[in-house]
């Protein structure tokens, strides 16, 4: 049996795992945005909190993924919960750092002009700073997504969903005729998702960023 014949026989399983993988990554990314962007907004003006937050997020990213997923089993059990928490932690650094960098790179002259027009702090943030920082923030989301697509495969080790289960099944069946096919299906699915998300973020950047500040 060829690889394509094997895929034709179990494509529903591959599609289901791909959808689960996508949902897992988007959940982790969404939580990282909900946590990370407000933290960046609160700390980007003050040096010590900013350095502390970015350093803490960087420290999380250095924890080996197998170790982190394993450590989260004790408080959260098996399945989705430890997978989502781990992915959220890994996504925080690119989300927070890029949001901080984007907000700090806004031209002070623009801010001064906005204040001169009578904008209060909230309106300045929502109407001037965040829109101007958006391309840099979006780049952080793009990097975080690519990062999570790979790390999410480890979720299979804690009974989490996604394409990692195909890879794990393939490794568990090493030596059998179709072990390599399972592993390739999982890897190919992740690579395909990475390409699709990259294209999606490129389109999103184009349609949500004004032409004057587009990179």
TrEMBL record:
InterPro entries linked: ABC_transp_perm/SBD, MetI-like, MetI-like_sf
Gene3D superfamilies the UniProt entry points to: MetI-like
Places the protein is found: Cell membrane; Membrane
Topology versus the membrane: Multi-pass membrane protein
GO cellular component, one term: plasma membrane
Keywords, ordered alphabetically: Membrane, Transmembrane, Transmembrane helix, Transport
Domain ABC transmembrane type-1: residue ranges: 18-205
Family matches, as Pfam families: BPD_transp_1 (PF00528)
Main subcellular location: membrane
Protein family membership: Belongs to the binding-protein-dependent transport system permease family.
Superkingdom, natural source: Bacteria
Keyword Methyltransferase attributed: no
Protein name per Swiss-Prot or TrEMBL: ABC transporter permease subunit
């Amino acid at each position: 049996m060829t690889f394509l014949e094997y895929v034709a026989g179990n494509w529903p399983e591959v599609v289901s795992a791909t959808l689960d993988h996508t949902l897992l990554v988007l959940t982790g990314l969404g939580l990282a945005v909900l946590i990370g962007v407000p933290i960046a907004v609160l700390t980007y003006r003050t040096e010590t909190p900013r350095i502390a937050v970015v350093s803490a997020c960087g420290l999380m990213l250095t924890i080996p993924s197998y170790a982190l997923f394993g450590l989260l089993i004790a408080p959260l059990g098996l399945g989705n919960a430890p997978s989502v928490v781990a992915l959220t932690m890994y996504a925080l650094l690119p989300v927070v750092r890029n949001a901080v960098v984007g907000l700090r790179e806004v031209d002070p002259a623009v801010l001064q002009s906005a204040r001169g027009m009578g904008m209060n702090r909230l309106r300045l943030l929502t109407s001037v700073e965040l829109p101007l920082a958006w391309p840099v923030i979006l780049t952080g989301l793009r990097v975080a997504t690519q990062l999570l697509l790979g790390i999410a495969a480890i979720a299979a080790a804690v009974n989490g969903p996604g394409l990692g289960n195909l890879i794990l099944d393939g490794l568990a069946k090493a030596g059998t005729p179709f072990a390599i096919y399972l592993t390739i299906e999982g890897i190919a699915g992740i690579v395909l998702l990475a390409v699709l998300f990259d294209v999606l973020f490129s389109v999103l950047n184009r349609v949500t960023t004004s032409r004057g500040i587009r990179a």
